[in-house]
Amino acid sequence: MIEIFTTGGTIDKVYFDANSEFEIGDSLIGELLAESNIRDGFAVTGLMRKDSLEMTDDDRAAVREAVGQCGAERVLITHGTDTMPETARALLSVTGKTIVLMGAMQPARMRRSDAVFNIGFAWAALQLLPHGVYIAMNGEVFEAGSVRKNLKAQRFERT
């Protein structure tokens, strides 16, 4: 069984109309997995609905506690991309699990989102990687503590 925790971020953002700003809506992770013919073997728990720029150390502690207390050995976390490396580092103290964080540069609800690819890639990585904490984004896997987001290039890279 794979435990999926959702925390918000761009992947779950919704844009209502020209007068609105993006807001974080319900997670589409279950729907997106179903589109990929993955219908069981996972449970989804919504931890928070935050833009990752608004995440605090207390939020990261809550994620760490939830991951540490869950019974699953494999954990997928949907997360905003801006502070994903910080949360990954905060999870390094959790042992005996394979933890993969993933997100999207464009909301999953948008036609040209990288969300579907990133979810499928993270799903596969989660099942193949040894215990540890990783970020799986845009076809690459990065170990926690050795990755950063390059804001200008809009991609993750090793540090």
Automatic annotation (TrEMBL):
Pfam family, one: Asparaginase
Domain L-asparaginase N-terminal: 2-150
InterPro entries: Asp/glu_Ase-like_sf, Asparaginase/glutaminase-like, L-asparaginase_N, L-asparaginase_N_sf
Keyword Membrane: yes
Regions crossing the membrane: 115-137
UniProt EC number: 3.5.1.1
Keyword line: Hydrolase, Membrane, Transmembrane, Transmembrane helix
GO MF term set: asparaginase activity
UniProt keyword Transmembrane helix present: yes
Domain of life: Bacteria
Protein name listed in UniProt: Asparaginase domain-containing protein
